[in-house]
């Protein structure tokens, strides 16, 4: 479904500027649909690579809205002609950009949903057992470490893309538990799971 709709929407507009200690992305949604996910890559620049995967079905970017994102990477700001908006997904399930990159975005979202559900299951089990929060956090950090790729992974493979998303999600949950109760973190994850499960294209 995502591939069939890949030409239905314009790619979000991207402007890149250098700044002290990093770079700034300016992203504008020129579609009539809210923007839920997109991929920005540094393409064919010798000796360097950068990718930003953004996916937020809970708070999509409204039509016509512009977002400013500051990052620490200085290379992309220095060579803006090599920085490309590669793919995007919209709230109605339509998409734009390179079909293979759209597929990667969808599969990454599918993996994020599965990982969110596993996180919920682990936290519910810990809550039922009365496990100390410090032990739950340690378990999550160990889990995140266990999906670290071995050797020199292919950065463009779906497995590597999914693993990075999973590690980030688990690390965010561990950090959330540092500041909140297991019950509060379960509520946050439950809302995220619901939004992902209802997102389009269907997972």
What's the layout of helices and strands?
Layout: E1 13-19, E2 22-28, E3 35-42, E4 51-55, E5 66-71, H1 75-78, E6 83-90, E7 95-97, H2 99-129, H3 133-146, H4 158-179, H5 182-198
Antiparallel strand pairs: 1-2, 2-5, 3-4, 3-6, 6-7
Helix pairs in contact: 2-4, 2-5, 3-4
List low-confidence stretches.
Answer: 1-7
Q: Structural class of the helices, strands and pairings?
A: alpha+beta
Oligomer: single chain
- Share of helix, binned: 40-55%
Radius of gyration: 18 Å
Description:
With 203 residues, this protein is an alpha+beta fold. The chain has 5 helices and 7 strands. It has helices at residues 75-78, 99-129, 133-146, 158-179, 182-198; strands spanning 13-19, 22-28, 35-42, 51-55, 66-71, 83-90, 95-97. A 4-stranded antiparallel β-sheet has the order 4-3-6-7, covered by helices on one side. A hairpin with a 4-residue loop joins β6 (83-90) and β7. α2 (99-129) packs parallel to α4 (158-179) and α3 packs antiparallel against α4. It starts with 12 loop residues before the first strand and ends in a 5-residue tail after the last helix. The model is unreliable at 1-7 (pLDDT under 50).
